[in-house]
User: Fold these one by one.
Assistant:
Number 1:
Amino acid sequence: MIREGWITAGRVTGYSRLALAIYAMLAIPWGLLSHDFLDPTGKPLGADFINFYAASDLALHGRLPEAYDIARMEAAEQAIVPAAVEQVVPWQYPPTFALLILPLALLPYSVAFVLFMAATAALYLWLIHAILPDRRAVLAALAFTAVLVNGLGGQNGFLSAALLGGGLILLETQPIAAGVLLGLLTYKPHLGLLVPFVLAAGGYWRAIAAAAITAALFALLAWLAFGAESWQAFWHLIPTMGDYLRAGVLPWDKMASVFAAARLLGASVLVATLLHALVALVVAALCLLAWRRGGSIELRVALVVSGTALVVPVLYDYDLVVLAIPMAILAADGIRAGWMPGLRTLLVIVWLMPMIGSSLARYAHLPLMPLVLLALFWACWRRQRLTSAAPLSRTPA
């Protein structure tokens, strides 16, 4: 039996403050040692943010299709930060994401970076507070190591978590708003892979309709703004990105998927694909079963978000910000109804893994993140089953 008495609310708050202090101590010298928008390693500040900024610049000049040409995107990024000599971040997003980030290039690079990260972080923290309205929970969510990974990369993990979690949490109280948020998530469509299936299983037809209409209007607006060529270029790039994933050009050590872990351990593409598919099918089946049976919407949300992390083949370390959603839900449930044995220890491990998972995979060839995701999914499944043993009555929205 794991002794968990040391994991108290006071200690969680203390360790969260310590983590934030460490982040600050790392960030300040990192910033002071940076110059010409380059960090001490020679990468642009915000690493991947240059990808968003360059796409915004191209879109503002009516040249978004060029973002899907890797050579032209390299030239666009080089023009923004000329001192960066080895920085090529392919633009892999549908044209809809360009709508969301369109104003970025109207601002200086550093200002755009700070505003984008601050605005999306605010959405993320709003979501956590909505799930568990306690300042200590918000503090722990801010200190979550995936936040550091996402912040250093200048990535969109905060936005993805806010749209996915917000859309699912609002299903029973505001189904139209929920559908709109989920429709906007199509800017990163693979993160919504399970969503239409679980919504259908649960009978959330108004939310499905709102999501479909929002996604269609979102795509149409992008087509009107950037032209059909941008969509054609996006679809033509997808096979290339698939080849990059299978070959390891897209770094497996920065991914948390079963497929990437299997490839990193030496499995063939076929074996890795079959293993990933097996896990994905089991996870998807359990999610559908849970959503069809009903019960606590919060616990079903935790289940499908943790399940999504196992189903998608491309899940980077910065995408793991979404794990704050099931962690907050399980914590809220534990405070209210009592803790399952081992759950607090598991939450601590999940809280730490985004920071150390990539390092273990890169330097020790130990891709442990899929195992942690499986443990989290199983905890969500067990808790959901315990509370829905006597199904709650509800009328689907």
Note: DSSP finds 18 helices and no strands in the chain.
Number 2:
Amino acid sequence: MSAQRRSNVFLIVLSFVVLSSGCAQPPAGSGKSAESILDRVKREGVIHAAFIKYPPFVDVDPRTHQPSGYFIDVMEEVRSRMGKDMKLSYEETTWGTMVAGVQSKRFDVVVSGIFSTIPRSMEVTFSRPLLFVGLGAVSRATDTRFATEGDLQKPGLTVAVTAGEVGHEYAQKYLPTAKLIVIDTPDITRPMLEVLSGRADIGIADSMSCYNFVAAHQGDAKQLFADHPLYVYSTTLMLPRHEPDWKDFLDQSLAFLDYSGITKRLEAKYKKGSTAWISRSLPFAP
């Protein structure tokens, strides 16, 4: 066979292979895009939501185990406008496992009032902010050592934090010489009991948890950095990544609640002290 003929045969075979591959049927299911969370919610009529006890954002009835609170009311306001047959199915989770639950699509949303942080944002995403919470600390009422953030660099400091919570993240990054007592608990105020017992010098947590703890232990504990938080966090709903329709729906829903004054009414219902949190329209001053 001549070189020219071999070349012609090769081109014919190559063309046949290309045409055949173009006509081949795709593997079963590969031509159908995965159903989005929003489409599935509309089809099933159910939002699968997770919560963590975090009063007054979320509280839990000890008898019925039913959640209540600011963010539960927010989600109910959204649900009630989605249609009379829409339901919210709640499941309790923890600060340490909530990200995995969102990533696996076990939860459509976590509603406890989650802080948007850089490490968390590498794994999940968040809806638009609803309010702002500062990062502070609690010490014993008689302890005068901590007036500024720099005082947290004192040698020999013992710090109590909740595993996976923002106080834990802060201590790991900015307090490398401190001894950490890390407690895996859904109750962010629990490490502060280590302070009252004398096992820790301070407990680091969000401003709302610090406020609640000091209010419950007047005369024994005091709130640190209330007016000038160590950090300020936008606080909102946690969502899975790669679900733009679902995020857009919740962003638009929260915007409606914000602009219509509903979130302001809910804040008035649940907010007990000026240092607990700041509304979205009035963030902490620098």
Note: The first strand starts at residue 46 and ends at 51.
Number 3:
Amino acid sequence: MEESNPKTYEECYLIIDKVVNKFHRKWRLKAINWFDFEDVAQVVKLHIFNKWHLWDQTQPLEPWVAQVSSNQIKNIIRNNYTNYVKPCMSCEFNMGEDQCSFTRSGTQNTTCDLYAKWAKQKRAGYGIKLPLSIENHTQEVDHHQEHTIDYEGATNKLNKLLKLNLSDIHYKVYIMLFFDDKSEEEVAKLMGYKTTEKNRKAGYKQIKNLKKMLKQKAIQLMQEHDIVL
């Protein structure tokens, strides 16, 4: 039986925001560089708003929001990354890694028409999946053996460097935001941030600026110490 006074999106916003933000870590692990998670979260929330009428309000809200969020994030990754993957991935001549049984050289290159079309139209988009800009490093990236990257070791190295280069409180915020999946409200409370603006989360501007600073510092250290994630 339908509720006589159904809940609105606005009434449930805090719950929605908390559930969506739980996907932060998953996005960080599968990140597309030109999409910040804050932008992704806004896209997901807008989709939830547009599909609000589909939520059966006799059922818990959190699982429904989690399912919608997961599907939307998968769609974003698919539409903005997998469309750029080399055609070699599904080609019958693919011999593994960069090897090809079709070309004279035995490697995947522009003597293949499909590869040449991909290189001209989509190579740049494919490269952007890396967390650092490759504008001036196309040659290095194209020949980088991605499967040899020690992600856990690189993350630990970056974390140690950040601990040395950040204040204790900022490092704690970094861990909370990017590893402990803490909400922005929890971090704002730790930092003592407040707001007087109606319908705004406490410290939303400060948290946004703080996250920007942390990302800039991480990128700087990754570049200085040749860390690849």
Note: Residues 171 and 228 are 20 Å apart (CA to CA).
Number 4:
Amino acid sequence: MFVTRVLTVLVILPLFAAALLFLPQWLWALGLLPGLYLGAWEWGGLAGYRRAARLAYGLVTAGSIYLLYYIGSRVSSGPTNPEMWVFALSGVFWVAVAPFWLGGHWKTRNPVLLGAAGWIALAPMWLALVRLQAHPYVLLMFMAIVWIADTAAYLAGRQWGRHKLAPLVSPGKSWEGVAGAAFALVVYYAVLWGFGVPGARMFSPAFGLLLFAVLLALSIEGDLFESWMKRQAGVKDSGQLLPGHGGLLDRVDALTATMPAAALAFYLH
């Protein structure tokens, strides 16, 4: 399975990176829109929506945030105030709501609540990916935090994992995996800083390390939150779109929490 996951990444990542680096932002935004729709479709499945409701939910989620972006792009090349509030809403959810949802093991099948949670998880992530594409190396730096942390946590947890991180939510995750991810990110940040990679020195070393630590915590939280949604829905994967990875949500779960926070930090620094 690990080999299958790696091969899938090797196929998708170059295409994704080429689009990120070379497409104009309006085309990049349109290119990511089907992914947002598919993510919302999968979320609707986890929420227990029927087919027609899932279709409507996907269209409303994708259409509403694209409309906000389209209007904003007509007046500004960067995020507008409403868009910054969307990033802030995401931050409030992941800092003040999701931890209690996970810690209390909340079980709800309320379609409105689950639909709102899905919009907050998916729409700000899409908007952050679109807006940060204007600074492609910064976006790649932030996304690599998630990729490196996920891979390091998997390998460290598999090798040394003994103490479960959240056994009732995702039994496979361990504190040793978290430690492995943290170590890998410290090395990653040191390499970025040492080689002066574009974007790495826009923050002071202390703030940069703090931001990386916060994004690591958020990436874990995003992963756990989607795992909890799947557990409540009684499924192993959100879908079967990507070989070795499951559905689209299974691959972007950590990005849902990290990308809006990264965008907020970047544009407010």
Note: The longest strand covers residues 170-174.
